[in-house]
Structures are given as C-alpha cells and as structure tokens.
Amino acid sequence: xxxxxxxxxxxxxxxxxxxxxxxxxxxxxxxxxxxxxxxxxxxxxxxxxxxxxxxxxxxxxxxxxxxxxxxxxxxxxxxxxxxxxxxxxxxxxxxxxxxxxxxxxxxxxxxxxxxxxxxxxxxxxxxxxxxxxxxxxxx
Length: 139
What we know:
With 139 residues, this protein is of the alpha+beta class. It has two helices and eight strands; from the N terminus they run βββββαβαββ. Strand 7 and strand 8 form a beta hairpin.
C-alpha cells in the first residue's frame, strides 16, 4: 500500500495510531466549488477467511484505503483533482458519526446547494424545500 496521500491536515508520513478511529473531511471540486463533507475510518474490520491463518473466522483489523479514498458519493468520487481537507480526527466510531452529523448541521450542508450532501448518518432525508434551500451558483 502506498504511503502517499493528498489529505491536507495530515503529514505525508502520517501513520494512524491505535486509539484514533478516523477523520471528518471536506472535499471541494476545484472547477465548480461544490463541496462534500464526510467521514472515513483509518481501519477496516473484516472476517479472516484464510483457513490456514491462526485468526481464521475471527474479525481482524487492518488499515483501510483512507490514503486513496475520495468519497462514497459517486458524484464526488468522480471529481478530478479535488481539494481534500481533514477537518478533525475522532477517537471512536461514535465520535466519528456524531462529529460528521454535527459538522453537517453547523455548516448547513444539507440546505446549501453548494454541498453534495443528501444524508444525515445513513438515513436519506431528501432535498430541502425551496423555502429552506440556500442557493449557490457554480464558478
């Protein structure tokens, strides 16, 4: 796995320590100015399926694809050369989910057309009505 990443806010040689679950991020499309706020865990937890392994059948933890990750949102994942910023590090999965929701609400990302966020947590809430929507005109 390459140790290179393009996340602003983390040193190039950053190695996630145990006790830090992940980070909240902001990705911005350089061409349009559209943005997306999300969360990413540093860790992947999978069941070991290799029968010869001493941990066969057990859940194992390994570093996730965070270095190359762009987003689970298909539109955002297709952006070429976006600005990727780490907003904060989180110690637990709960803190990761809570902080993502907190930042989405405080930034009005669900209401602003500039943001490509349409979910709070894992529950789709749709788009805001026109009287709540905060419009944005791309660059």
